[in-house]
Design a protein that fits this description.
The chain has 362 residues and is an alpha/beta fold. It is 36% helix and 20% strand. It binds magnesium ion and zinc ion (ZN).
Length: 362
């Protein structure tokens, strides 16, 4: 009985104090970050995150991030987005048609956050476990209404001053129908072109084009190893040298492909790997103190439902509604200065607006 009275008193005293405090809380100035690391799990809905959580026995980096929210993903012309329109919303703050990258619904190029960062002297990077010319990374650097024009997209990389890009897609630079050799062009512009991350000497590397597969990187179960977390760590070491800051997008591309294949084991492997890359970003941000880390997805893939599992053994069983994407909201997680803006339900385009606002681009 006494405990009950004490807790009522506690509420009576604290609640009005908290309510009175909230308007001034709202006015509290948000400390802007110097750097932003945006990590996109392609096709990573809430069930995919929880499948990873289960496989990691509850020790997940993503779910340890303090701030969370949801992103609404519909595109300009479809209730269900593809990765091109989904990533363009995140990169440029506009809803565009499916299959479009870096252009609006009328086909007009839009400036991306990576290009805005370049223009203002920040360093930039892109990392992907697909070809680097695939829809998600391409939406940050290329402009076309047809996401499958890989040769054109590769050419767009040379129109920017991007500092680091790591992924597959060597053939789109080296073996082209127009017989241009973009590998030589990259070298002429001061890039160290690597086919293996082991060949990269970080202290002497200032611009890095690491094209580690002819097309896409292999899936985890076919020997990709720690490429994604290693690439993330390496890129951050290179980008952090810029006193003005940096923007980098890191994609776990193949969570989506596990969804298209309705393959739970594929999804789990890819989410766990993506979470390890998130861990590298969080480690950097916790030490640095001036870096905002955002983890989200472009859409969910597969309509995954978790119909059984065990946190202790890490076993997950799933069932699927479709071999395609779904319309469901996707989760969003944030850590670091400015992270407090990323709560509640927002449009995918708001992710760009908030990031561009925090970096002073708007
Ligand atoms: Mg993708
Ligand atoms: Zn997909």
């Amino acid at each position: 009985m006494r405990k009950y009275i004490v807790s009522i008193l506690f509420v009576a005293i604290l609640v009005p104090a908290w309510c009175a405090g909230s308007p001034s809380e709202k006015k509290k100035k948000i400390k802007p970050p110097k750097n932003i690391i945006l990590l996109i799990g392609d096709g990573m809905g809430t069930p995919q995150v929880y499948a990873g959580y289960t496989a990691k026995h509850g020790n997940m980096n993503i779910t340890n991030m303090a701030v969370s929210g949801f992103s609404i993903t519909y595109s300009a012309n479809d209730y269900i987005t593809d990765s091109g329109a989904g990533a363009t919303a995140l990169s440029s703050g506009i809803k565009t048609n499916n299959a479009s990258i870096g252009v609006d619904a009328s086909g007009k190029p839009v400036e991306t956050i990576l290009e805005m960062a370049e223009k203002r002297g920040l360093s930039t990077g892109l990392i992907s476990t697909s070809a680097i010319t695939h829809a998600t990374p391409a939406s940050f650097i290329a402009h076309t209404a047809n996401r499958s024009k890989y040769a054109d997209i590769a050419f767009d990389f040379l129109k920017t001053d991007i500092d680091v890009f790591i992924g597959g897609g060597y053939n789109h630079f080296a073996h082209r129908a127009d017989s241009l050799n973009l590998i030589d062009s990259l070298k002429a512009r001061g890039y160290f072109v690597a086919r293996d991350l082991k060949d990269v000497d970080i202290p002497s590397t200032h611009r890095l084009a690491a094209l580690l597969a002819d097309e896409h990187m292999p899936r985890m179960s076919k020997g990709r190893g720690n490429m994604l977390p290693d690439a993330t760590e390496m890129a951050l070491k290179i980008l952090k040298r810029n006193k003005k800051g940096f923007f980098i997008m890191v994609e776990g591309s193949q969570i989506d492909w596990g969804g298209h294949d309705n393959d739970v084991a594929y999804i789990v492997d890819e989410v766990v790997d993506f979470d390890n890359a998130v861990g590298k970003a969080l480690q950097f941000a916790a030490k640095d103190g001036e870096t905002l880390v955002i983890v989200t997805a472009d859409h969910e893939t597969g309509g995954l439902g978790l119909i059984g599992g065990n946190i202790a053994t890490g076993d997950v069983q799933g069932a699927f509604l479709t071999k395609d994407h779904t319309a469901t909201m996707v989760p969003l997680f944030a850590f670091g200065p400015g992270s407090e803006l990323f709560t509640g339900v927002m449009q995918n385009t708001d992710v760009f607006e908030k990031c561009a606002g925090l970096l002073g681009f708007k």
